[in-house]
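INFO batch 0412 | record 1 of 1 | parsing
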Amino acid sequence: MASMWSKRLWRHYLRSAERMLKVFRIINITFLLGSTIIIVVLLSLFTPLFSRTVVYVLYHLPLPEIPETAINSPPTAYVILGGGLTNDNNNQIILNPYSLNRVRTAATAYHDLPLPIVLSGAESPWLGQWLNEHGIDELISENASMNTCENARFTAKRVALRHVYLVTDSYHMARARRQFALNGINSTPINAPLPVKRDWSEPAQNLSHSRRAVYEIAAYLRDVLRPQLDCRRAEDISTQQLLTPRGKAIKTFN
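INFO prediction complete | emitting tokens
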């Protein structure tokens, strides 16, 4: 009898030990996989891999429903979204590198296909000045917007548009196109380069792109899950406010 109980206890012990080993194996595999994924992601932040993947995913996100007339209409204007202002060595306000790249990109497109250019954001006077200095004067300014949501709302209020060439950088493009779609405007993207290039041999530059990519992921999710509280409605802004430059307003990302 005692021998029988001993055998049962021994078998129970062996089964328990086998279950524990299986649990430890699962934990070990999960830890190794998790650690590997974390290491790969961290390493990719210092290469072009992470930022390129983010841009690809953002580009393929679906847009809100756009009116059929907007889908079937050709682009009738360029819209440049301001990317910020800065100060030069003489403490004069100038376009920052984001805005400068966007206005240069729009100017190149304009010379290939002249269309009216809508300048959206507090940067509009400086964008307009740069374009005037480069022989482009077919401009429409919207000076009141201070973020991407307002860019779309106030542009739609400023001028009747169905389809535009939208000029901003590739990270910002998905969020901007979504906001314009919400305001009934279809958009064809024209991507402006960021101030620094991706380069496999330049980890610091790649990290700059990765930071921008992370920012845009967070901002896009915020716009979808919890729309901006600081996005003013079109009816809250008068036409005169849209036409009035905001002076020394400074932005970085929008």
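INFO post-check: The two ends are 80 Å apart (CA to CA).
INFO record closed
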